């Protein structure tokens, strides 16, 4: 599969020094382990930790022999290196690569591993491919996976977009998937196509078939994309959609979710306003993802842009219950990576901080520790790689840069920090906190 050898580099550094990506370690404490997961034609990786922090699960897509597949590798605390990758999708080639829609991985309270991913479906007349959203579950620590299952309720209907997804574990043990859904806009496009064909059949059409297709696509673009969620229960035995959170989302900026200690579920995404502004909003649920509040702005940037910027938000919950959100905006007067905090569980937000101003469109990831420190990873064009930042009580400290790195994913749990990113055609994984 074009995968190189998994030789592990154990990096131990003196007190006070920082390591690549800001993963600090000292000679008498936990070390940071780093390894290459895969190389070649590979897509953006993501990572999740088990509840006790003793296992890290990495997933990505890789193309071999002209076909994309989803792979997962598990790294257990007692192992010198991650396990050999296992293919997740049962149907060979039933996957696709997109940096805003990488496969997502999560672990439930019983240790079952879930991977959610999308495929690509070419549809005549559509500007972009349609996609189905799948999930597969492993009950043996990622060594084998069960059947592919559709997440969305309209599987088998007219192909539409179901992508830019996220996956999280709920307080009751179920899993929740969020995604951007295009079934309404696809229905509008097909209706417009049918209207044009009927006009031609009656001899009243004055447009060519190509013009009709363009007109149909234009009409569909005025029907907004939706944010939808679905619960996965009993290890994948039951999957059902619950709520529609938005009917006018930016169509290509991924969703993100987090759950606090009281079980409140937070979902965040980029909303498209009637005037063309595309800003980050948030909604929350207190009934396990069955219903959500109306979306509210995290902050109104008033970023007016006529195309999707392909950069979604990051969200994390501190032990104190503070909700941290980071995102990119290209607003003329405040472009850059932003960070903001809610100290009342998503009801209101503080003033935002521009952590990295003046950069072009960038991806961001964050995590937080038990002491209230936020670790922010940002693509950083000014430093030529992936920068690590420490945010504590409104103070931001730049820590380090990993040159030529991009597309970060990070999770922190039970004293363990797991990170993954891409360097050119290599996927790199790191774990901090294991002795």
Distance between the termini: 31 Å
Low-confidence stretches: 1-20, 22-28, 207-220
Overall mean pLDDT score? 89
Q: In CATH terms, what is the architecture? A: 6 Propeller
CATH topology: Neuraminidase
Number of strand segments: 29
Question: So what's the CATH class?
Answer: Mainly Beta
Based on CA inertia axes, which overall geometry fits?
globular
Tally the helices.
2
Q: Count up the domains.
A: 1
Kindly estimate the percentage of residues that lie in beta strands according to DSSP.
35-45%
Give the quaternary arrangement of the chains. single chain
Secondary structure topology:
Layout (H helix, E strand, L loop, with lengths): L8 E3 L19 E9 L6 E4 L5 E10 L2 E10 L9 E2 L16 E4 L5 E6 L14 E6 L10 E2 L11 E8 L5 E7 L1 H19 L7 H13 L3 E9 L4 E12 L6 E4 L5 E8 L5 E8 L10 E2 L16 E4 L5 E7 L6 E7 L10 E5 L6 E5 L5 E7 L4 E8 L2 E9 L1 E9 L2 E8 L2 E9 L1
Antiparallel strand pairs: 1-2, 2-29, 3-4, 4-5, 5-6, 7-8, 8-9, 9-10, 11-12, 12-13, 13-14, 15-16, 16-17, 17-18, 19-20, 20-21, 21-22, 23-24, 24-25, 25-26, 27-28, 28-29
